[in-house]
What does this fold into?
Amino acid sequence: QLQLQESGPGLVKPSETLSLTCTVSGGSISSSSYYWGWIRQPPGKGLEWIGSIYYSGSTYYNPSLKSRVTISVDTSKNQFSLKLSSVTAADTAVYYCARHYYDFDHYMDVWGKGTTVTVSS
Amino acid sequence: SSELTQDPAVSVALGQTVRITCQGDSLRSYYASWYQQKPGQAPVLVIYGKNNRPSGIPDRFSGSSSGNTASLTITGAQAEDEADYYCNSRDSSGNHPVFGGGTKLTVL
It folds into this structure.
């Protein structure tokens, strides 16, 4: 069945760029009707959608993070990636990738296990 | 603050029925999806669309909507249903996904 796995550094210094990759297995990232998204959860807090990308490269981002976020896709590797620039301690969180059905309805039906990223010097 | 409002905590006696609600203007136009999250685990989709359950989700979970409020109902709550529950829909512009603040469900 479809599985998603996040990978990347667990520790990032303030002002630097956080970079994570999500590898999709058991299915194609080029599936129609599905976007691929990033969601984060600060310690003890709720979920925050960061942004999503279609296999064609079309993206949409959370307006509150848009100036610092770049999401890209590599269909040849069945992967998509997140870059978040100028990080601060407020960006410390568990970062999840998920398959995102986006039409009139939208929902995230397959999630990775999440990866913890700490911003600290 | 989130554009989708949830009660922070709800409790239910074992075997009883509980409704978890989510309020927001966008819910007048769009359905909510609901996610269950247990400590240390990733969220799991339990309800999407009008009232659809992914494969493997027990039929004691159901969804409904009225006006600006979406509801997740658990009929005959079990101990394993104790978790945080999040609603998700679009923001007030209709353009972007947004999560509610989450509801911690305690099964007594």
